[in-house]
Amino acid sequence: MLKLKRLPLRWQLTLLITLISSTLLAAAFASYFFMEVLNLREQVAVDSYTTERLMMKQIHATLRQDPDAMQPALDLQKKTPFDLKNSLSNTGSIVAAAVFTRDERERIVESYNRANAWEPIPRPSTYMGNFSTDAVIIFRPIGPPDKPVGTFYLKAKASPEQRARLLKPIPGMILLFLASVAASIVIARFLQAGISEPIVKLSELARRVAREGDYTVRADIKGGGETAVLVEAFNTMLTTIQQRDADLLVAKNAAVEARERLAEINAMLEESNRTLERKVAERTIDLHKATVAARDANQAKSAFLAKMSHELRTPMNAIIGYSEILVEDATDRGDDGAIADLRKILSAARHLLGLINDVLDLSKIEAGKMDLYLESFDITRIVQEVVSTAQPLIDRNSNRVVVECPADIGVMHADATKLRQILLNLVSNASKFTEKGQIRIQASREKKPEGESIVVRVNDSGIGMTPEQMTRLFQAFSQADHSTSAKYGGTGLGLAISRQFARLMGGDITVESAAGKGSTFTVRLPARVVAEGTTPPPSLLKETPLDLPPLPPLEAVKPPSTNTVPGLPSTTPRGRLLIIDDDEKVHAMLQSLLTHENYSVKCARSGAEGLALAEEFHPHVVVLDILLPQIDGRDALDRLKESPALSNTPIILLTMTENGEMGFALSATDYLSKPVVGSNLLPIIQKISALRTQIPIMVVEDNAAVREMIVRLLDREGWPAIEAENGRVALELLKEHTPSVVLLDLLMPELDGFSVLREMRANPAWRDIPVVVLTSLDLTAEVRRFLEQQAERVLQKGRYTRDELLQEVRESVNEFMRRRSKSTAPFSS
Fold first, then answer.
1. Is the distance from CB of 637 to CB of 624 less than 8 angstroms?
2. Tens of pLDDT along 117-171?
3. What does the buried/exposed string (b/e) look like for 490-529 if buried means 16 or more CB atoms within 10 Å of the residue's CB?
């Protein structure tokens, strides 16, 4: 096959035409021979079936004449009635015949074989079929179809004459075939020239173009049909290649020019890169300098905020504390004129402190220094505290407050202080802009696919706002309009700071209002606030130095230390006692007795009057009659224990019988049975006040004015105090005294409060002493967590009241006594 493919095209075409002609001629001769064979076979079949019908008629006729004709002859010389030899000898195509019995032996009754052509005669039961192409074999039953008596066998085959006649044309057909093949070769040789010659010339032209690369030549070959199409396509291809060569040459020249231009551009780019690198290096240096300057400015701002926090809050805290002391002294003296002036001073100081706190908070927010202190707390308690704090403002304009807070609203994880400040700002604004109306506080928990939210709505029926006024509502130092600011006052910082706090916790504040129809402020916060960033674990805080901004010494701004204040009495009472009894004789007797013992005494004739006086007077001891009009002693005792400011106040019950178990069951400290005898009352009071006179409270504060104010406040409450002007002095005093509580400032010369805390917690003898931190610093969440691990409570100067400080002292003293009762370690006084 490979050799044929290598032949020239003219020979391939000649062989193809010759092969096709020869194949067709051979197929025609084979068809002719096959048809002759079929005709011969058909002639033999016709002769055999004709003979078979004649013989069957003869056999049936013989059987009708002689029924025993099917019995085989015993005598070999005796002829049977079936004379097959005479009947078939004249038939040239019959070569064999026989008549068989129908029994099991299938015996031959009569048989025939053509002369000189012996053929084996098969039994009917052993015959397997005829496989000859020129022979016909027939088996026919003899007799009735349902009861044959024998079988007739006949075999016909072509005669030699017929076969000779069939093969006679073959030599002539072979000669004719060879002559036809020779003629087809001659004809093919002539016909292929019209096909192969153009193709050969085209291939020679293609080899020339490939060898010389001359694409200008063209094929000029006469022809038609596909050959003309091929020549035209070849010429078109040459034209295309020639055009492509011309275009390629132009592109090559352009590429050379572009390469030269690119080299110039690369050179310029390299120069630009060097210039850019130099500028980037210069800008990097400038950026580094700017970053350092910004960091220094940020540190300076942080230091300034910390210094301002300390420098402004510390003296304001002293002013407020002294004003409260002077108000109490003026109240004891009955100097109403001084009380009014002092209350104005106290109100102005508190207003100024609130403004300072707002400005510092706003500065911290803008500087990105405001941290979140996250804790879990009860939402209901926060709402109640806000309402309780804002109640004086609500009552001032004769408003009515309605609180809708479900008892099962649950807890929230957020910054409780900031949430309290947000709600207090909203409730205070509602109280200020509403007169003789209603303020509604609604708290709810909403569940959404993104998580749970706490929603608090503060609605009022006040003056409302226009849409234009609401656009300026949350801007710092901005109120609804100038007339509102002139009439109602305010700095315009409360709402701005509240919204910043809400957004800092992942929420927001929105408002709905209409002029003359009131306003609704909605606070929406996540139920679980997640602080941005991460905080080191608490275990590391004790070992890691706290990054506090450096502050200059404060001695230059300290007020002069003094132990006396003009206008104050030189001696203070031993304690304040409140007597709640409806018997005036008991009032007179006890007031005379206790005043003589240098106690400050106030009396109330009913349970309601006693509760109101207790909230105002803050007694050290309450003497309570069990039987009172309107509100009896049991209810009064329960209400006293429920009040945060009075829950730790000792209560002595007055009963009509010796029933001490009932008094102790009601959580009373002790009891007396009427009639009251002074000799029985005084030992009980002295026993209750023993803690105040035996175990001192240490005040560690470098500012002399603030330290003296706290000491005098404690002294008025009956607690002795030890003063320390810095941390080093405090540690020296701790070696000699074991105070019940340490009130500790953080920023002090020589040794600060953080070092004092570490020393106390490291010393087993001081470890259980409660510490209440008093600081003017704005504490970060990290520092606050550290302090809460080391101290009982952290109070920020300017953000706690006198009552809150005293309450913390009471709780800390009780905690100290509880620890002391469980410890066996010795204590010094």
1. yes
2. 677 888 887 766 555 566 788 888 887 777 888 888 888 887 777 777 778 888 8
3. ebbbbbbbbbbbbebbbbebebebeeeebbbbbbbbbbbb
pLDDT in tens, 472-530: 777 755 555 555 544 454 556 778 888 888 988 999 999 998 888 889 999 999 999 98
User: Across 121-206, where does the E strand assignment appear?
Assistant: 135-142, 150-157
- Is the pLDDT at 448 greater than 90, yes or no? no
Are 633 and 668 in contact by the 8 Å Cβ rule? The answer is: no
Q: Three-state SS for 455? A: strand
Q: Tell which phi-psi region holds residue 398, choosing left (phi > 0), alpha (psi between -120 and 50) or beta.
A: left
In angstroms, the CA 807 to CA 644 distance is: 8
DSSP string, 59-112: HHHHHHH-GGGGSPPSSTTSPPS--HHHHHTT-TTEEEEEEEESSSS--EEEEE
Cβ neighbours, 10 Å, residue 217:
12
* pLDDT tens, position by position, 259-315: 999 999 999 999 888 899 989 999 999 888 888 887 777 667 666 666 666 667 677
- Give the residues across from 775 on adjacent strands: 796
**Average pLDDT across the chain, whole number:** 77
Q: How far is CA 242 from the centre of its chain?
A: 66
CA distance 346 to 443: 34
Query: Between β-strands 721-724 and 697-700, what pairing exists: parallel, antiparallel or unpaired?
Result: parallel
Distance CA 440, CA 401 (A): 6
Check: CB of residue 717 under 8 Å from CB of residue 744: no
Q: Which of 550, 570, 554, 552 is nearest to 705 (CA)?
A: 554
Please compute Rg for the chain using Cα positions. Answer: 65
Answer yes or no: is pLDDT of 532 > 70: no
Residue labelled with tokens 């009982």: 792
Question: 């905690």: which residue's tokens?
Answer: 815
pLDDT at residue 456 in the model: 94
> 128-142, 422-436, 629-643: which has the highest mean pLDDT?
422-436
Look-up: residue for tokens 């049975």? 673
User: How many of the other CB atoms lie within 10 Å of CB of 211?
Assistant: 8
Beta bridge partner(s), residue 774: 795
CA angle 573, 578, 579 (to 5 degrees): 130
Reported confidence tier of residue 204, pLDDT bands at 50, 70, 90: confident
What is the C-alpha separation between 790 and 784, in angstroms, rounded?
10
d(CA 680, CA 174): 163
> What pLDDT is stored for residue 3 in this prediction?
59
d(CA 609, CA 568) in angstroms, rounded, equals: 29
Strands, E assignment, 436-571: 438-448, 451-460, 508-513, 519-526
Judge contact between 760 and 767, C-beta under 8 A.
yes
528 DSSP β-pair partners: 413
N residues, the chain = 829
Q: What is the pLDDT of residue 558?
A: 33
What is the reported pTM?
0.41
Query: d(Cα 569, Cα 716) in Å, to the nearest integer?
Result: 11
d(CA 529, CA 415): 8
Give the distance from CA 495 to its chain's centroid: 33
Give the type of residue at 4. Answer: L
Quickly tell me which residue has 């309601």 as its tokens. 608
Cα–Cα distance measured from residue 538 to residue 547, given in angstroms and rounded to the nearest whole number: 15
What is the rounded CA–CA span in Å between residue 787 and residue 781?
Answer: 10
Give residue 537's Cα distance to chain centre: 24
- 778 within 8 A of 369, measured Cβ to Cβ: yes
Report the pLDDT value the prediction gives residue 309, as an integer from 0 to 100.
63
Specify the pLDDT at position 479: 54
> What's the maximum distance between 2 C-alpha atoms anywhere in the chain?
187
Tokens of 783: 């520092």
